[in-house]
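User:
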Amino acid sequence: MRILLVSPWNNCWVGYMKRFFESKGHTFDFSTDFYIKEIPKYDIFMSGWCDKVVKILSRQPKLCSKYVCWVRSYEFWHNNLSKIDFRNFDHVISVNKYIYDYMKLPQGKLLLNYIDLNRIKFKEKKPGKEVLLLADINFKKGIPLLIQVARKLPGYNFNIYGKVQGRREYIYLRYCNLPNVFVRGYTKDLNSVFDRMNYLLLTSPVEGNPNCVIEGMSAGLKPVVHRFVGSEGQFPFYWDTIDDAVNLITEPDYDSARYRKWIEDNYDMWKELPKLEELICA
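Assistant: Predicted structure:
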């Protein structure tokens, strides 16, 4: 098959997908730019996001055999999906059960994200005092919940690795001014960060299928995951109240091998990509 993937971001997934599909004898091309005239050269067009590209293609006759698009958390909550005629798409892939159930599309498919386990270094860890929040900071990330957990655990360090995206988030963190909350900034050296941490905290009320938890668990960190919308089945356990989160962090139960095994069983890229190939190339 000749496959074209269009996405505004050239992230690590693109390289892995190209490597996989070409190893199976397919042609796989990627572009961050959208040119309608290029689509007829391919058998399958894939859009990595449900964005303006999908809106445009949903309103005109198809230009190749199959159209595929992903509907992730951001587009679902922020884009006006009612303007898209999904009947023009052969497969609409969700990474979140709530989004999948809500859309009720006959061509819908629930496929979770995946990870190259060789990219994340696993290490047996033990209970400690270092808590990681790995995300670019906006109010979708539930920063008030983070502050409440941090207030309950003054002896623990809460380390935010990511960019503070807006003035209101910056002012809120400065206003709270907790001595145990640290904004560390953006880093590409995730293995070094994971090596120093004990817990991966997620405080978001809404997510799709968060990579930060997948990556943290694969490194051996204990996940402390707020029960976000559509989280069913993604991870082994969650917290619903601040006390629940505190208990998950302070209890002695800690098993790095279990967390890694969960990712190996559910998010291994080289097990999941064949499912994508089977779906789109059948």
